[in-house]
Amino acid sequence: MKAVVLAAGEGTRLRPLTEDKPKGMVEVNEKPILTHCFEQLVELGADELVVVVGYLKQKIIDHYGDEFDDIPITYAHQREQKGLAHALLTVEDHIDDDFMLMLGDNVFRANLEDVVRRQREDRADAAFLVEEVPWEEASRYGVCDTNKYGEITDVVEKPDDPPSNLVMTGFYTFTPAIFHACHLVQPSNRGEYEISEAIDLLIQSGRTIDAIGLEGWRVDVGYPEDREEAEARLKSENIDAETDSERSIES
Question: Where does 2-128+170-176+205-242 sit in CATH, by number?
């Protein structure tokens, strides 16, 4: 399965960290965010990384070259940042089967493999992780509305008045049907082509969609304080791992 990573964004909310580098090259625990993404995708069995670049793209290309851990990298250029659905369409010619999609500004330590497995088992056109966030944070994300049975009935991007606090995280698997939906997406009130709108079109057309609850954690690195949170979590995990290793040796 190929893995698409969206990394074209400028990261204006992360300034000054992004004044001389794209968002994906901001370091968290001494590694660029993209390295964390690539490592996770390789663990999931990605046989090719298709990376969408834009702002200061050469910084990414020069750093990673044409492979990561012996997995080939293909680059696609989003010339204007017009939203995630627009970014996804830049890789359409590179994808001919089911694929993983990760947003290149997220750090995950979560059950990503459950998304891949469920999508394959259910032959779903889309599967993604969801999590409940504090209500005041929901408007930062694609928000899922559900019926009384807990089924997702629609998805709305960054609403002023969120219908719930259940949000999509930055990891998905899709069939190529998502590209047709992206072509149908109209600009949102923000003037962007939203991936949430494409997923909503799949839902409204009766396609099989799987939403899997997040187990573990993830941090969407949108602000400097998010970077600090992700770094603190990773350092804490490293300390715990070292402690467990020492206990194992002693026993």
Answer: 3.90.550.10
At 47, which amino acid appears? D
- Between CA 77 and CA 11 the distance in angstroms is 17
pTM summary value: 0.90
Between CA 9 and CA 212 the distance in angstroms is 26
16 prior amide bond cis, ω within 30: yes
Domain ranges of the chain: 2-128+170-176+205-242
pLDDT tens, residue order, the chain (251 aa): 999 999 998 888 888 888 889 999 999 999 999 999 999 999 999 999 999 999 999 999 999 999 999 999 999 999 988 999 999 999 999 999 999 999 999 999 999 999 999 999 999 899 999 999 889 888 888 888 888 777 788 888 888 888 888 998 889 999 999 999 999 999 888 888 999 899 989 988 988 888 899 999 999 998 999 999 999 999 988 665 555 555 555 65
